[in-house]
TrEMBL record:
InterPro entries according to UniProt: DDH_dom, DHH_sf, DHHA1_dom, RecJ, RecJ_OB, SSDNA_exonuclease_RecJ
Protein name, entry field: Single-stranded-DNA-specific exonuclease RecJ
GO biological process, one term: DNA recombination
Sequence ranges assigned to domain DHHA1 in this UniProt record: 345-435
GO terms, molecular function: 5'-3' exonuclease activity; nucleic acid binding
Top-level taxon of origin: Bacteria
Length: 559
């Protein structure tokens, strides 16, 4: 640890009176002073940046106010994923309090594809909508915005994806990632950008500054699902959004939580693993409009009707995901040369297009390497690619562009389309590119450890501080610890796959669970000390709460 880091840790320890290991973790995360710690542990909505710092905010607000005064028809347009559907719902719900000439539109995933579509623009024109507010999409739609301009359909774009060189000629483009946008925080999700527009509109409409807070549960859901950093403004928005999720949630959130069996209080991981998949399933398996209808429902009973549709979509999605994953794993095993490869490319024409991205992620859990899963779509092969941490997937796919009709994405994920008779050639080229550029470290799953501690350090007070570090997510992950030289005190295999730990270190006993770790039981059986990597969790049994370890990995101790 550098001298400056040591000084910061000591300053925090002195000011906060908490365990030095926790102070060290805070310093690693950029919390170095008492003032930083106060803002981190007690975020305030007043700390949010002024929306007027965002480029074109004045133009966006002026155009919407004109539309409200002239009673123009406004169309709220958005993407079909969680960020897009929540953004549409938030903007629609807000505008509904001020305006009646209003509707929303989501492109169909398979008929129109991602983002602003010609069909959507034509819908706006044919139905008399003179203003479209596009959320979580639009920054790359310069040609389509030109088309809309020719039809006298105005667009306001609220997006967070990286802009191309050419910015669409919309009435206003709100995106903090624009090079000439001075907005201080660059990591808002699409719903977050829309929320900032609502804050500015409230100011001009003379509404209370607290008026937009009612939508923060949906903003928090978008932040959680879109895997944006939970730092800065996102941390503040997620912090207060979770408060609303647990105290006065949108009827749609409440209905999805009920159907998913989520226990109160809900945390970010509940939004990520229980709520978000059900919202996403609408667009993956059918039509995402029902997700927006869920969130704009006025009553819990109405919301529950739509939530049940999403819940059923998600059940179908899980069945498709599981069966396709099993089939894909079988394909890999049938082709012996594929097993030792540095990449995976699999194709079957009957696989459901809506789950190929999920299947790619599942395959990486079994064969840890960059993976492409393809299916048939419109007479072509189309699909999704996923990477392993540290490997630039987009660059690898770009290097295979001679075989592709189209592709797009980023460092960790991408989509691509190609002729079916080019699949084999693409597979070989992709393998060649990956094998030449992937490093040894990138071929081994890595667990990032925050600190080494002893079991005796784990107390209710220690865990309470960790809980106060929530909400967790990118940029502020749940702390991961290592404890060395622990000894077995009666651990066992449960359900053939998992380990139920009972361990001790220097007389301190702890229990824990290690999912999918049964294959490492021989390390424990040897009777020798071993090291464990874990998170700290709370277990509730018969009304009693106790701390336990959620073990991520173990290995024989080296002395």
């Amino acid at each position: 640890m550098a001298v400056t880091e040591e000084a910061s840790v000591e300053e925090l320890r002195s000011a906060l009176k908490i365990h030095p290991v926790l102070c060290s973790i805070l310093v690693q995360r950029g919390v170095t002073t008492f003032s930083d710690a106060k803002n981190f542990f007690r975020p305030q909505l007043e700390q949010l940046h002024s929306p007027w710092l965002m480029k074109d905010m004045d133009k966006a607000v002026a155009r919407i106010l004109t539309a409200l005064r002239a009673n123009e028809k406004i169309l709220v347009f958005g993407d079909y994923d969680v960020d897009g559907t929540t953004a549409v719902a938030v903007m629609y719900r807000f505008l509904k309090t001020q305006h009646r000439q209003l509707d929303f539109y989501l492109p169909h995933r398979y008929k129109e594809g991602y983002g602003i579509s010609k069909a959507g623009i034509d819908f706006a024109k044919e139905n008399g909508f003179s203003l479209v507010i596009a959320l979580d999409c639009g920054i790359k739609s310069a040609d389509l915005i030109d088309y809309a301009n020719c039809l006298n359909v105005d667009f306001i774009i609220c997006d967070h994806h990286l802009p191309d060189t050419i910015i669409p000629k919309a009435v206003a483009v709100l995106n903090p990632k624009q090079k000439d946008c001075s907005y201080p925080y660059k990591e808002l999700c699409g719903c977050g950008v829309g929320y900032k527009l609502i804050i500015a509109l409230c100011e001009k409409l003379g509404l209370p500054s607290s008026f937009p807070y009612q939508y923060l549960d949906l903003v928090a859901t978008a932040i959680a699902a879109d895997i944006v950093p939970i730092t800065g403004e996102n941390r503040i928005l997620a912090f207060y959004g979770l408060d609303i999720v647990n105290k006065a949630p949108n009827p749609g959130i409440k209905a999805l939580a009920f159907l998913s069996g989520a226990q109160q209080p809900l945390h970010i991981y509940n939004l990520v693993f229980m709520i978000a998949p059900r919202i996403n399933a609408a667009g993956r398996m059918d039509d995402a409009r029902k997700a927006v209808k869920l969130f704009v429902s006025e009553t819990y009973e109405e919301a529950l009707t739509y939530a049940e549709l999403l819940h059923n979509d998600n059940s179908e999605r899980k069945e498709a995901d599981a069966s396709i994953t099993e089939e894909a794993l079988g394909l890999i095993l049938q082709n012996e040369t594929w097993i030792s490869r540095k990449s995976t490319v699999v194709y079957q024409p009957h696989w459901h297009k809506g789950v190929v991205g999920i299947v790619a992620s599942r395959l990486i859990e079994h064969h840890y390497r960059p993976t492409v899963v393809l299916t048939e779509s419109g007479g072509y092969a189309a699909g999704s690619a996923r990477s392993v941490p540290g490997f630039n997937l987009y660059e690898a796919i770009h290097a295979c562009r001679e075989y592709l009709l189209g592709y797009g994405g980023h460092f960790a994920a991408a989509g691509l389309t190609l002729n079916k008779d080019h699949i084999d050639a693409f597979r070989e080229k992709f393998e060649e590119v990956v094998a030449a550029s992937i490093t040894e470290d990138q071929q081994i799953p890595a667990i990032l450890i925050d600190a080494e501690i002893k079991l005796s350090d784990i107390t209710p007070a220690f865990y309470n501080i960790i809980r106060q570090m929530e909400p967790f997510g990118p940029g502020n992950m749940t702390p991961v610890f290592v404890a060395r030289g622990v000894k077995d005190h009666g651990s066992r295999i449960v359900k053939e796959k998992h380990l139920r730990f009972k361990i001790q270190q220097e007389g301190v006993l702890f229990t824990g669970i290690g999912f999918q770790l049964a294959h490492k039981f021989s390390i424990i059986e040897s009777g020798h000390p071993f090291d464990i990597v874990f998170k700290i969790d709370e277990n509730e049994w018969n009304g009693q709460k106790s701390l336990q370890l959620k073990v991520e990995d173990l290995k024989a101790a080296v002395f």
